[in-house]
Amino acid sequence: MSLSTTLDVRSILERTGALLSGHFRLSSGLHSANYVQCALLLEHPHNAKAIGAALAEKIRPLRPTKIVAPALGGVIIGYTVAEALGLPFVFTERKEGAMTLRRGFRLEPGDRVIIVEDVVTTGKSTRETADVVAQHGGRVAGFASILNRSGKDNPFDAPYEFLLALNFETDDESGCPQCAQGVALDAPGSRFSK
Question: Contact 26/121 with Cβ under 8 angstroms?
């Protein structure tokens, strides 16, 4: 039995206090009564390493040559996946609102890239990272995340692997019942810092 089938991600989420309830604005801009704080999930290196190794085994058949992750949420899991596969790791980050490749990171023409995220909801940051990979000559061979909140088996145009699907309800701000009730909004993600 492989590590990815024996690792109980939901149990680790619960044990680490990473599953939160309240009124949250997700990095996608959507609102939800549920939030997963992957920073808590990955706070202990032994958890991060085990989760990274499990995700690495799922993407190994895609034969990546480099792992790329969007900052900030994808950095820890991207690094641990790359470590498990013995591959180089780079990350994209926002500069003046646009996703970019900085810090001297490079992609070689034809690099087979897997883009790794902590959570995929709408996939916006992941797609922006895919655009950066293409602009720098890399080829997106697939996508991976710890959690899939998209509500779809694969919201992308290449193979997608994940460890756990969570189908929490989300709402646009205009249709959010908690906003209508005046419940205070928390924005714990990295895109919204209000």
Answer: yes
Spatial distance between the Cα atoms of 183 and 116, rounded to a whole number of angstroms: 33
Judged by DSSP in three states, 16 sits in helix
Distance CA 113, CA 143 (A): 9
Please write the tens of the pLDDT for every residue from 21-67: 899 998 778 899 988 899 999 999 999 999 999 999 999 999 999 99
For 32, the 3-state DSSP assignment is strand
Helix (H) or strand (E) holding 9: helix 9-16
Length of the chain: 194
In whole angstroms, what separates CA 114 from the centre of its chain? 12
Those residues of the chain that have pLDDT short of 70 are 1-5, 189-194
